[in-house]
Amino acid sequence: MRLVLEIWRQKGPEASGAFVRYEVPDASEHMSFLEMLDVLNARLVERGEDPVAFDSDCREGICGTCGFLVNGEAHGPLPNATICQTHMRHFKDGDVLRLEPWRAQAFPVRKDLIVDRGALDRIIAAGGYVSVRTGSAPEANAILVPKPAADRAMESAACIGCGACVAVCPNASAALFTGAKISHLGLLPQGQPERPLRVLAMNAQAVEEGFGHCTSIGECAAACPAGIQLEVIGRMNRDFFTAALSRRDELEPVAVLPKAAAMRAYVAEPKKGET
Amino acid sequence: MATDLRTTPPAPAAPARARLDARIPSGPLGSKWEQRKFEMKLVNPANKRRYTIIVVGTGLAGGAAAASLAELGYQVINFCIQDSPRRAHSIAAQGGINAAKNYTNDGDSVERLFYDTIKGGDFRAREANVFRLAELSTAIIDQCTAQGVPFAREYGGTLANRSFGGALVSRTFYARGQTGQQLLLGAYQALLRQVAAGAVKLHPRHEMLELVVVDGRARGIVTRDLVSGAIRSWAADAVVLATGGYGNVFYLSTNARGSNATAIWRAHRKGAFFANPCYTQIHPTCIPRSGEYQSKLTLMSESLRNDGRVWVPKAKGDGRAPGDIPDADRDYYLERMYPTYGNLAPRDIASRAAKTVCDQGRGVGPGGLGVYLDFRDAFQRLGRRVLDERYGNLFEMYERITGEDPHDVPMRIYPAVHYTMGGLWVDYDLMSTIPGLFVGGEANFSDHGANRLGASALMQGLADGYFILPYTIGDYLARGGLAKLDTGHAAFRDAEAEVLARSRRLLEIGGTKPVEHFHRELGSLVWNDCGMARSRESLTRALAELPKLEERFWRDLKVTGTGEELNQELERAGRVADYYELATLMCQDALVREESCGGHFRVEHQTEDGEAKRDDARFTHVAAWEWRGHGPGAERPIRHEEPLVFETVPLQQRSYK
Which pLDDT value is given to residue B345? Predict the structure, then answer.
């Protein structure tokens, strides 16, 4: 099959970019999308041109490394699949496909289709964990978890951190990503002690990184290759309000609530002498 | 333990230094690790922050080690080539993690897990290491559960187990078919907690390109920033390599595209011995390849063999659709050949059996390179819902790749390179032959012998990272003798110069073909001549061909762009350049090991019914290779031997019948 590709080319973080047109005249329907790009790149190198830079690693949909927009759709047209798992049998001979990197203020472009998603790591670092030192764990079966809670937690924990949810959100919000981790840990008994602090800290970090707010549009869940459901945002919001209001009772009044600086006041431990 | 050094032709005699002391603690097997921990020197808690430890890699071993070392108070600098530590290749492990919890009350114990692992490894692993691994397995499950890893549960809220290849007890813990992902995210979250606390300095998209050795000790590394191209030195008191295996030498493997051997190979060239390079694992349940452009192979978790039955048609060239072939015309060959273990026979055995039936012309699918993995009976017995709960994401993955629904037609599978048991030689403390250089996870050779059992890689990576390296590194540091040092030392300048020269050399070849072309060519040679079955003839041929391939690479490679930018072609070129050297060593090792054991099958050495035939009198040892140079006119590498002593488990021929 013959394909026309219009690919975003950008030399480096500071350079300006543009779409460049390429043709792949002989793609096979059994190729994966990235294998089709491999073929294009091999030819570009042989012609002495700079190959298209794109991220990929496991090529089986679990590492979350790959991802770009195909005709405006994150990871292409196939639902619940990453672009590395999308095979050319889902496209037609003669298709014109426009490839561009994730677009979000918090994801600066590094080169061509590669962006920097370090902001997602920093959201996790702000509180997406259970604080347990190596060696201090109790016997595993001492913690009983109802099967439905474990299953729901697993559904949320399946997030691969690819950033598609941010890329398709008109607000470039990371609510689905953040909500997935908050749901995962919040559904388990192990996550309870830090639950209020976690939701405040992670959301404060998301604001600081420049991600937008969620306005319940739902594009994120529709685009998610790992099938993360919109309900994780509902769980996060519930936890956020509960935590914010209970923290508020303990702290001095703050004039404006959701700005990062004010948020940090909520996250900080109460001063000595306070309850 | 006695550690006399012997050598085997064709290598020249080893130097008289006792460099292969595994330092296995004395005393009975069950108390060696306790004994070792008691003997360890401790670092004063207030002094821990004065020590800097470099950890290369953020997978299960590296991520767990970096987090745990930082919790203890050391300054940790952590590197990975991926854009986030969460993307290390441990994430792709599907099936599960073994632990001797005996939650299913089916007679499991530390001793049994130890025994199964020794036997599964075909008696080519150290008893002391494997026993420690089995002992630590239970603490790993406790740790991961406390972190919030969402393991599968029973309705009463306790942890669920399933059985896995090579075992008759149910001891595998799992999180859907994404166990590696969940365990890695647990380690990643623990790591990022330390990053936020300032105890770990994290550097993603950095590739280690050289090890720096000063006064005989590992004291730092040189990295390339994969975004800017900047070359930089880092000094430390100890270096941990947890950079994974070298399966991508075959080009097509189940490893991630970025997985590579450069970090361990650079360390090998600086004096770290490479142990058992020929021990590679071919996994029986992968999706067959579909064409020339194939960029990697996809594994279907071995757990599928719990409920799927493996078969091929009895007759050669049976062209009927699988559903039209009645049971009478099917050969469930694993059940026929290995009645006790059946479809759960270990990986090496199941892989070779698949090759045998395909070589007989009874393979299915394109090119006859495939066998059926059929869930028909399980669907009838258990129903669709139960099976989808167990394997739903694997069924989906299969359908996505092949366009066929395993609910309707049997899966087609074929063996593919999956894991490398060989790796840098380490002693009981996981320290290489370079003092101060520690190696964890798949990058070392330690625990799996000649064949790894399913669900044991995650166990080993986490045992190394959470519970072994944090102790043994402390002991090394506490013993002192480390001079003050920073990156101003001449050794760092020299190492940087080497890295730059190498990069320049790759960029200046100015040939005609992209690196992919050469890697494919190399991989195909190694797969054909040093893959599932090896012979003196095939290995000799490979050793004659390899220099020619390598010469063409250095003459005709084309790398576009420069070193001072994000340049994926340059990254890959450096890795493939190292694979030529590694492939040569793999073939040399396979040639000298005149026996069959585990994943190393020499066609000259098999029993009458085609099973691997060990030669315990000559080869009950670890082969550890010392670098002596490479290329025309270079000395041959020296093959050292570390004898393996079996005091607890008597040597016996493995039988899964």
Answer: 87
Q: Do B142 and A58 touch (CB under 8 A)?
A: no
The residue of A35, A58, A131, A188 whose CB has the most chain B CBs within 10 angstroms, and thus the best one to mutate to test that interface, is A58
Domain covering A3-111 in this structure, CATH number: 3.10.20.30
Query: Which residues of chain A neighbour B291 with C-beta distances below 8 Å?
Result: 28, 30-31
| Per-residue model confidence as pLDDT tens digits over B339-396 | 988 998 888 889 989 988 998 999 999 888 899 999 999 999 999 999 998 888 789 8
Nearest CA-CA partner of B19 in B6, B7, B8, B5: B5
pLDDT value for B6 = 36
Chain B residue at shortest CA distance from A81: B400
List b or e across B192-210, with b for residues whose CB sees 16 or more CB atoms inside 10 angstroms.
bbbbbeebbbbbbbbbbbb
Other C-beta atoms lying within 10 Å of the C-beta of residue B264: 28
pLDDT over 90 at A271, yes or no: no
Q: What is the pTM of this model?
A: 0.94
Is residue A225 within 8 angstroms of chain B, CB to CB?
no
Q: By the CB < 8 Å criterion, does A77 face chain B?
A: no
CB-CB under 8 Å, B150 with A157: yes
Domain with CATH 1.20.58.100 in chain B: 490-621
Length of chain A: 275
CB B268 within 8 A of CB B424: yes
What's the rounded Cα separation, in Å, for the pair B263 and B250? 17
From A162's Cα to the closest Cα of chain B, the distance in A is: 10
Q: What are the backbone angles phi and psi of residue B257, rounded to the nearest 5°?
A: -60, -35
The β-bridge partners of B210 are B222
Cross-chain residue pair A130–B470, CB shorter than 8 Å: no
* Mutation site for A-interface testing, chosen from B86, B90, B159, B395 by largest number of A Cβ within 10 Å: B86
Beta-carbon separation of A65 and B87 below 8 A: yes
Q: Which of B224, B347, B362, B654 is catalytic?
A: B347
B347 is catalytic: yes
| A110–B397 C-beta distance less than 8 A | no
Report chain B residues whose CB lies below 8 A from the CB of A138.
Answer: 142, 146
> B451: Cβ–Cβ under 8 A, 6 or more apart, which residues?
B120, B121, B122, B279, B281, B346, B347, B348, B421, B597, B598, B599
Nearest chain A CA: its distance from B387 CA (Å):
15
The stretch A190-199 carries a mean pLDDT of 95
The overall average pLDDT reported for chain A is 92
pLDDT digits (tens, 9 = 90+) for A87-104: 999 999 999 999 999 999
* Distance between A64 CA and the closest CA of chain B, angstroms: 7
Q: Does domain B283-418 have CATH number 3.40.1390.20?
A: no
Closest partner CB to A121 (pick from B192, B291, B396): B192
Q: Output the 3-class SS for B455-502.
A: CCHHHHHHHHHHHHHHHHHHHHHHCCCCCCCCCCCHHHHHHHHHHHHH
Residue ranges for chain B with pLDDT beneath 50: 1-17
Distance CA B636, CA B587 (A): 13
Res. A264 pLDDT band, cuts 50 70 90: low
Distance between CA B236 and CA B217 in Å, rounded? 11
Question: Could you tell me the residue ranges of all domains in chain A?
Answer: 3-111, 118-267
Contact A51 B569 (CB under 8 A): yes
Structure tokens at A49: 């041109």
A118-267 CATH choice from 3.40.50.1360, 3.30.70.1290, 1.10.1060.10, 3.20.19.10: 1.10.1060.10
Q: What is the CATH number of domain B490-621?
A: 1.20.58.100
**Amino acid identity at A180:** A
